[in-house]
Amino acid sequence: MTDPEEFPGAADAPVPRILGNAGSLAAADPASTGALWRLAEPGRQLDANLIRIPPQGSIDAHTEPDLDVLLLVVAGDGTLGSATGPHPVESGSLVWLPHGSVRSVTAGENGLSYVTVHRRRPGMRIKGRPGA
Question: Which residues lie closer than 8 Å to 85 by C-beta, 6 or more apart?
Answer without folding.
Answer: none
